[in-house]
Design a protein that fits this description.
Number of helices: 7
Shape: flat
Bound molecules: zinc ion
Distance between the termini: 50 Å
Length: 153
Amino acid sequence: MTSTRCTDRVVGAILASWRYDISGISPNMRKDYEHHFADCAHCSARQKFHRSLDATLAVLTSLAAVFFLFALAVLKHIKPLEHMAFNVFGLDVEDTYHMLVSAGISGLIFSLIVLALVLMATPAPKYLGGIAAERARIIEERLPAAIKSLRSR
Ligand SMILES: [Zn+2]
């Protein structure tokens, strides 16, 4: 990926085995690794890459769940259309409808399970929460003084 090298191979190997996630270890142990991330361009780049990968997985799986939910909603409202479609294709209406609904439900359940696994196995919630907190802070800084004084009451 990059031509940079880790400045401390031992620490680098430990961090790599944790996928550069130090959120799970105690704060006083974390200090050394935070120093390493500050010193080592290689490891901090890898950390950023892995955290954005986690966030991407979380976003993709939740999108999949939303799409399956949408498909189920479409199936629920498709009654007027299905008459023509099923007559043209010569499909049995009831069987096809049940097949599509069960495909939609199993897809929804599957993507929710995968989303839960992603959120449990990766620090994505913390990472996304951090981004949200940062955005909120930036927005709050930009608020006009009048609104700020209202909020502080
Ligand atoms: Zn390193």
